[in-house]
Description:
By secondary structure, the protein is of the alpha+beta class. The protein has helices spanning about 40-50, 55-70, 95-105, 120-130, 140-160, 210-225, 240-250, 290-305, 305-325, 325-335, 350-360, 360-370, 380-405, 410-425, 430-450, 450-460, 470-490, 495-505, 510-525, 525-540, 555-560, 565-575, 585-595, 605-615, and strands spanning about 15, 20-25, 25-30, 30, 35-40, 165-175, 180-190, 195-205, 230-235, 285-290. Among the domains are: about 1-60, no CATH class; about 295-425, no CATH class; about 450-575, no CATH class. Helix 6 crosses helix 7 (about 240-250) and helix 8 (about 290-305) packs antiparallel against helix 15 (about 430-450).
Amino acid sequence: MPRPKSNPHRKYFSFDILSNTSTCLIKKDDVNCGHQIKGNHGTNLSKHIKRSHNTLIIETEEQTSSNQTISKKNSVPAKTIQDFIKPIVRVSITREDIQNACALLCTVDGRPFSLMNDIGFRRILNPLIEGLGCENFINPQNVRDDVVAKSEKVVEKIKEETKGKMIALKIDGLTHLNRSFIGVNIQFISDGHLVLRTLATEEMFACHTAANLKDTILFVLNRFEISSQQIYSCTTDNGRNMVKFVELLSNENIPEELCDDSSYENETDVDNDLSFMNDVVFENKCISVRCAAHTLQLAVNAVLKDKNCSKTIGFARNLVKKLRTPTMSYIMKEKNLRKPPIDCPTRWSSSYKMLAYLVEDAVYHFCSTYAVANSDLYLDQKVWDSIREIVSLLEPAEVATTKLQSQNLVFGDFYHTWISCKLLVQKNNSKLAKFLLTELEDREILLFENDAFLCGIFLDPRFNITLSKNQKQTCISLLSNIYFQILSISNNSISLLEKSLEASLSESFDEVDKYLKLEEARSVGSPSCMSTCSLLESIQIFLKQRRLSKSTDIIKWWSESSEKFPELFAISQVALCVPATQVSVERLFSSVKFIMNPLRNRLDMKTLNAIMLLRTNHMFSK
């Protein structure tokens, strides 16, 4: 016969054998709970009671323990003096403090919501709740609801921060535990500081096509009341679907009547002649930006694909595999040598670290010594020389890659790192170095063909001297376009002026007079048109600025120069906020992997999004 069903919570449920479901019979505020649970398993019934009906937990526990206490009354041990002394601990804490601490545990610290029911945690928490004189208000469901509520406050805060502002977008994709996600970050400048915000870790249930990406991103932006017109640029890994997505997003903003800009082929003196601005067509489009770290990675990978280079790395990889065998690992440990790292062929940085390890003096001496008795550890001297050559070649790129991991990186900072890498590679006279230098120069040309990168360098007095006259001329038209986008977003000055004129025109004016007055407001009298001259004058003065030191904080410099160049300052807050890399999105994905580990792989999208909003937007940083 089966075991008797002794779970005390069963009396609160009715079980239907035909549908195999248990229905909760508890009444709350004269309303039946009616929650249905598949099956009749006692543990599942108890979990529902603990989550939704806390007051019954104490009653049930008292009933189940009453028999035990009665049976032990006759065998109570003698009390000592210590039993009469209760230590008094005074703690200054509020109900809100406890709720915030529990939310922090489940977001920043990555603990599961079930921690709220753990016995050890309850032994700490229950005395605090009793001291407050409150009923138990901490359980997994309550904490989950609190996390979601706090995430809504983060959403409202970001809405206020981005209202009427142009921003830069960062997106990337992740597949983890057979689930697909899109990470969405934005970046903007506020009060002289670059501000990074996470908007969503949105789960994708369809293919990552450009159209599906567009629908998902617009859904996320709509939640934060950010229009597509506010998106100045989008930094991606340059995947084809990502580039196409940016094109589709731009088509949302471009009116049909706008035509393509004509190119400026003739060089002019941009410091004195700005007449070409009369023919500029202004348009609102999102600029696609390739991740700077990805650009450097492509240049290095092109060199490592060289036949001789890849052959040398193959020899080194085979040697490392021999060194990682149990026997050799034990010998190396006895010699106080760390375990050799093996590379991932798709990540050149890991190949560099593997090669750099092998040419360390102690490791090279170890391999040379043991190669006499073990031929598997033998490498020809030419191979060792080739390894050293590759290490010296990749070292500048490795240093540059490390610097590019900085979070608040503007295009000027990236270009400084890029130039430093180029100059160090130039000092290397090997054939591989010349190959890498050619790759860097070719990709630098592509960098300067990007409008966002060009504007970022132009507005950086540390590095804008590297631009040609044609590039400066192109930048001026691009900056004017940004300026008019800012005006169109921040205030609808023309439409407001039209309304005021319509109200002020008396009945004595006929329809022709009204029409001419409104046309005058659009073409001459509007603030945006009147400010064009002052913008161009500011550009002329700005171009005569002396070069700044490369260590200057360019964001701070523009904040200090806001009164001198008011129009350019407004433009700089847009052009300089563009992220050069996707570092923040990659860190977002690292957080996703930490939160959604194999033991928590069933977190629903709403809860995961709420956790990531609190965790990555530093809700608990205070």
